[in-house]
C-alpha cells in the first residue's frame, strides 16, 4: 500500500482539531464514547490522525461523520487526507484470450442427390396411380382410400334397395286432471304480531386519557442534541441558533444535549428557562403525570 507523508501530516493536524474541540467541551474519552456510541480507541485514532488504527475507508467515513456531527466540526478535510493515505495503485487488468470456435456444416454428398430424387418420383407416381384407379372404378378422388394390397377390380357390394319400415308405436294421449284445493269457510285471518321496541343505545363513558409529555425547546447556539420518546430515538443531530423543536411522548421523554446553556425548555406548557449552565453536558428525563 502506498502512503503520502504530506497527507499523513495533514491528517494528524485535522485530528488535533477534533481533540481540541472535545477538550473545549470538557469531555473525557469515556463521556464522548457514551454520547456518540463510538469506541474510545476509535476516537483516539481519529484525534491522533492514525489511519493504520482505523478500519477500511468506507467504515471510517461513517465513524468520522458521526464524531464530527457531535462536535460540530467539518469532516471533509479529515476524510480527504485519510483517503490520500490509503490510496492503492491500480494494476493492469489481464484478460484471458477467448478460444476461437469453428463450426462445420454437414452437407449431403453430391452423388446421393439423383438417388433421392428418383425415390421421391417413384413414390409420387405410385400415389397418383392409386388415385386414378379409384376414380376409374366409380369412386371420387376425394373418396379414394389408399389401402396397401387392395385389388381395384373388386367392386363394393351394393346395399339392398328396399328397407322394411319400422312399425309406428301408438300415440298415447295423457289427460291432465285439474285438481282443486278446498278452502275452509271458517278460516281465521292471522293476527299481526307487534314488533318489539328498539332499545336506545347507551353511549360509552369516556375513558380518561393520560396527559403525556410535551417538550418545546428554543436554541441560542450550535449544539448537539439527542431525544428519545418512550424508549425510541426520535432525533439525533446538530441544532443551530434560532431553531425551535417540539417533541411529545406517552410515558417518558429523554433529552440529551452537549451544551445545556444554549437550550430554553418548556415542559407541558410550563416554562423551565435554561436547561443548564453553558458548556454543561446534561441528560434529562420527563415522565407523564396522571
Can you put this structure into words, describing what you see?
30% of the residues lie in helices and 17% in strands. Strand 2 and strand 3 (232-239) form a beta hairpin. By secondary structure, the protein is α+β, with helices and mostly antiparallel strands. It is built from 6 helices and 8 strands; from the N terminus they run H-H-H-H-H-H-E-E-E-E-E-E-E-E. The chain is elongated. The two termini are 64 Å apart. Among the domains are: 5-85, lambda repressor-like DNA-binding domains (434 Repressor (Amino-terminal Domain)), CATH 1.10.260; 114-149; 213-287, Immunoglobulin-like. The strands form 2 sheets. Strands 4-1-6-7 form a 4-stranded antiparallel β-sheet, with no helix packed on it.
Q: What gross morphology would you assign?
A: elongated
The low-confidence parts are: 88-94, 98-105, 140-150, 158-166, 172-185
Gap from first CA to last CA: 64 Å
What is the CATH H-level superfamily of the domain at 5-85?
A: lambda repressor-like DNA-binding domains
Q: Tell me about the biggest sheet?
A: 4 strands, antiparallel
